[in-house]
Amino acid sequence: MAVEFKDYYSVLGVARDATQDQIKTAFRKLARQYHPDVAKDKKAAEAKFKEINEANEVLSDPEKRKKYDELGPNWQQGAGFPPPGAAGQGWPGGGGVRHEEFHFGGTGFSDFFEQLFGRGRRARGFDEMFRDARGSGAEYEERGADIEGDIMVTLDEVLHGSVRQLSLRRVDPRTGEADSETFSVRIPPGAQEARRIRVPGKGGPGQGGAPAGDLYLRVRIAAHPDFEPRGSDLYHELPLAPWEAVLGAQVIVPTLGGSSIKLKIPPGTSSGRELRIRGHGLPHGRDGDRGDLYAVIRIEIPAEVTAAERALWEQLARTSKFRPR
Description:
Elements: H1 8-12, H2 20-34, H3 42-59, H4 62-69, E1 99-105, H5 111-117, E2 121-123, H6 126-134, E3 147-153, H7 155-160, E4 162-171, E5 178-187, E6 196-199, E7 215-221, E8 228-230, E9 233-240, H8 242-247, E10 249-254, E11 260-265, E12 274-277, E13 293-299, H9 307-319
Parallel strand pairs: 3-7, 9-13
Antiparallel strand pairs: 1-2, 1-4, 4-5, 6-7, 8-9, 10-11, 12-13
């Protein structure tokens, strides 16, 4: 099954030798533009937002980026992508070992990502090959294999919980025949990165009347342009003007969910200081409690100043007794 190659650098609009800071900046700019909460065409924005997140998922991870870059020369002409396990391709499970293939829909990730980084497949083990050699009968009972996949979950879904419609397509490696089904998956509030969501009975089929295996979906939190999750806490970079940091101020800070609050900046606040806003993080536990939101101070310096502003800065430089070194 050929899978279309995804040019993640083109998706983010960065060069192939872009630094991690350039990738982060490009993602944030596009994510703010296409975030479903602000876009007029929410359906189109949602698809674009997923595409941007997938590109960021790969390019912001050095290990994934290296693996992806190794494919680069093969795709200049838009060649098809052979699935892992194809004979002679050098992928784990090659060399004639047959695989059961599983293709997901509705997880937020493309087929290309699933084939390269996903785990929705398993090698046919010795017991299965031995059973095929002697013929599979009803007297041979074996529970179906568990399968795994990734599911992209937004911070809004982590905050409120959601129900997602997923599709699962199974391909028989011996005949090439496929069957598909669609089912609902509940994303619980507070789901964290790498948590596995179990979907009973949606794994590989059992043999001889034995039950099917289970499907495990590993949560991957979609990157957000304004908030970074760390467990149940959220972190937000808050830019301040130098005079706000020195004199103190009251500023507006966004919170997850669309509302905003006023935050008091103490005089003499330094860059990198974390100001805690209680109860505005992500849910944790069953009692509805939430983590905290941390505003991380970043002091911004104006790139250009007027003549009048320069005169004021020069006056400050002459009169101030502050010596940072």
